[in-house]
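Consider this today:
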Amino acid sequence: MDRRAFLGAAGFTIVKPERVRGTQMNSAVRLALFGCGGRGTGVAGSFIANTGAVVTALGDLFEAQLARAKDRLDTASAKASKPAIDRAQLFAGPDSLERVLGSNAVDAVIIATPPYFHPEQLAKAVASGKHVYCEKPVAVDVAGCREVIETGRKAQGRLSLAIGFQLRHAPPYVQIRERIRRGDLGALVCGLSHYYAGAIRRPEWPNASPQERRVRNWIHDKVLSGDIFVEQNIHLVDLNNWLLDGLPLSAQGTCGRRGRRDQGDCSSHYNVTFTYPNDVHVTVTSTQFIEGEWDVAVRLFGEEGNAELRYDAPVRITGKRPWDAPGVGKPEKTETAAAVTGAFKGAIEDADAEKERHWIESITSGRFINEAAQGAESTLSAILGRTAAYTGRTLTYEEVARSSEKWDAGLDVRRL
């Protein structure tokens, strides 16, 4: 699949209000959360706090996850004067997604499961007629990206399909992008991005089977997560694509596992340099093993100025046209446990809420959004960087997009 095929699936469609799924135009959108881990529960809680939506159903492979999520979300709902989740709408086991999607109490579903499962689960959600908010990345391989593009085509004009690249909605980032686009940096020359993350600790699950342990600790599993460049660093790749208004032409890089102590097979670090149109080189470096605070930033360098976008602060331009994002002060540090679930402080603190409001409003207004293509493009861009690092070769976007790459986890969740 070439770039035109990916781009061709993108779109924004306005439909008549009476076609909006739900009871009435102004009624609350009823959400199901599928995948009740830390990130999924955090996102669902943010929807409760920041939108008019209500969470009415939960689904997960593991029953214990449902109880923890229900307690947390019922507390959030009570604070927002919204109803608790009916216990009849808790679905566990290998068929839990089908039961969630078959519920008459659900208009839309949040998918927050291991990325390996996203293409299949997204397709099922769209086939059932539910609006979808799917966490990033949309897939772990090229075949999965193709499947997501096809699912996006099927959803076009019928359903609202959002992908969890919330940083595009952080108000300071939106403001600085407008300034970059109008030329405040002059001609762009190069960029540097880094995502330095601490080790993500997980239980050992001594009584679990090896396959169950893989699923529970999927963040340490290369095939289930996509490795750290596709699962974690994709936020930087997506930001660079957005800020530069394009996709990378090629990439070269290195990676390794040295320094990790967990039982998985994910890399500990990456160093990847992308070449964008107009010979703009952007280097993305990352870790997921260090001790200490998380540190994430994107920098772009132009002939007349430099832009800096940090997760915390500052968000600013220096050079001929200096600018500082208003109201972005240095926050308290973000602890690792909070960062893993996306609960960052500082410049991106409102990103989730803004993204969530945008999606809910698209449903209630009937102006459906379709981010399948954009999500697949950013995922494929990250896969390009990962593959270049694995092979030690300079690879083009086109040859990766045309490849037959398909990863097989060798899992049968029905037997867990």
User: Anything to note?
Assistant: The domain at 3-167+360-369 is CATH 3.40.50.720 (Rossmann fold). The CA atoms of residues 9 and 373 lie 5 Å apart. The two ends are 35 Å apart (CA to CA).
